[in-house]
Amino acid sequence: MISRVMSAELAEHAGQRVTIAGWVHRRRRLKSVSFLIVRDRTGLAQVVSGGDLPPEESVVEVTGTVTASTAAPGGFELVAPEIEVLSEPCGAPPFDLYRPALTASLPTILDHAPVALRHPLLRAPLEISAASVAGFRETLDGLGFTEIHTPKIVASATESGANVFGIDYFGRRAYLAQSPQFYKQAMVGVFERVYEVGPVFRAEPHDTVRHLAQYTSLDAELGFVRDHRDVMAVLREVVAGMLESLRARAGSALDVLGVVPPSVPAEIPAVHFADAQRLTGSDEPDLSPAHERLLSEWAVREHGSEFLFVTGYPMAKRPFYTHPDPARPGYSNGFDLLFRGLELVTGGQRLHRYDDYVAALAQRGESTEAYEGYLQAFRYGMPPHGGFALGLERWTARLTGAANIRQTTAFPRDLHRLSP
Ligand code: AMO
């Protein structure tokens, strides 16, 4: 390993000769002196040099003496440098990575993602995602959950409404998992409380700013709940933990984007689906994006909350594993969490008795055979349970104000994009 000091640590080494390493972010040539700005994972460092400077995006190792300078980022610079070039670029990057504002269009950025993502504005959402996932894990670990890893090549679809990618699996028909739904439920029988962070796949035929063909699903499932409200209480803790982790771990990314994370109320307001219909003046069995926006505005106005639970979705609109509301026929113990006008989370209480699954599948005209593997768990005793899934890219998009979900993931997959 190259023994190096990070750019953010220069102040601790004033007067010493140290080595930094990183990318040439920018070169500035004045009459008698030149400056090299080196970018590493902690920020920028200025190097004062008399000689020739390697071009932008060269990877360099620079040894120099740390000297105070009011004009340098962080107040210190390296003087009397020895510069070693570790790798030279083949040409100039497709656009300036050092200009604070981004001028390139989204397709240009995405076409050049491996280099474009080095821009601080494009890197920041990814740092925010990473810190959010750390908070998700930390919160659930603290609540006694176990992290699991489930197959992404599966034998059946789980989310009836969502489109599934079929693949050839050694000559058999298989699918890319739309959700770890069945496996996380089965694992409640093993660990009681489980979570997974992983990719899921949806063959989304529409070109929208909120759908990807592959996204990161933050899933949790827990046993021994009374009903969906216990799941909602855990989700509230998870959201608070993710926001806390952002403040602790991604401060500079939040600053770069000028983002102030919202606060989450001690109890997130909830509205029943039937009341949501009254509020939106709609009798549709589902909420449209426009209705979700309207309800979010209502929650801010009435409850001062940017988060809103919608509970009691109609059974007909939820997958077969959904637990009905025993008190309101036709409605379910399923919920969504809206955040800033967008569905961020889907969750609910599930059926937990084998006979109820057989009946639910029969009612939807499906045979139990296709689900034998899944139904095993319920043959051998499962507690009342429920869970949820949060779409990571939607979370980051809503937090950062990104207009398009493609700005929140490094290499988005959609109808048109399969590379880079
Ligand atoms: P659902 O299908 O509603 O529920 O998905 C859960 C959450 O995933 C996000 N999401 C998406 N994000 C980006 N691109 C997409 N194409 C996309 N589709 C969904 C949303 C959504 O709220 N098994 C259930 C969850 C559960 O009940 O535990 C499920 O997958 O943020």
TrEMBL record:
EC number from the UniProt entry: 6.1.1.23
InterPro entries listed in its UniProt record: Aa-tRNA-synt_II, aa-tRNA-synth_II, aa-tRNA-synth_II/BPL/LPL, Asp-tRNA_synthase_2, Asp/Asn-tRNA-synth_IIb, NA-bd_OB-fold, NA-bd_OB_tRNA
Principal subcellular localization: cytoplasm
GO MF annotation list: aspartate-tRNA ligase activity; aspartate-tRNA(Asn) ligase activity; ATP binding; RNA binding
Binding sites annotated in the UniProt record for ATP: 202-204, 210-212, 343, 391-394
Reaction(s) catalysed by this chain's protein: tRNA(Asx) + L-aspartate + ATP = L-aspartyl-tRNA(Asx) + AMP + diphosphate
This protein's UniProt keywords: Aminoacyl-tRNA synthetase, ATP-binding, Cytoplasm, Ligase, Nucleotide-binding, Protein biosynthesis
Annotated site (Important for tRNA non-discrimination): 73
Compartments where found: Cytoplasm
Signal sequence coordinates: none
Pfam families hit by this protein: tRNA-synt_2 (PF00152), tRNA_anti-codon (PF01336)
Transmembrane regions listed in the UniProt entry: none
Oligomeric form and interacting partners: Homodimer.
Function: Aspartyl-tRNA synthetase with relaxed tRNA specificity since it is able to aspartylate not only its cognate tRNA(Asp) but also tRNA(Asn). Reaction proceeds in two steps: L-aspartate is first activated by ATP to form Asp-AMP and then transferred to the acceptor end of tRNA(Asp/Asn).
Family per similarity comment: Belongs to the class-II aminoacyl-tRNA synthetase family. Type 2 subfamily.
Protein name: Aspartate--tRNA(Asp/Asn) ligase
Organism: Nonomuraea cypriaca
Record gene name: aspS
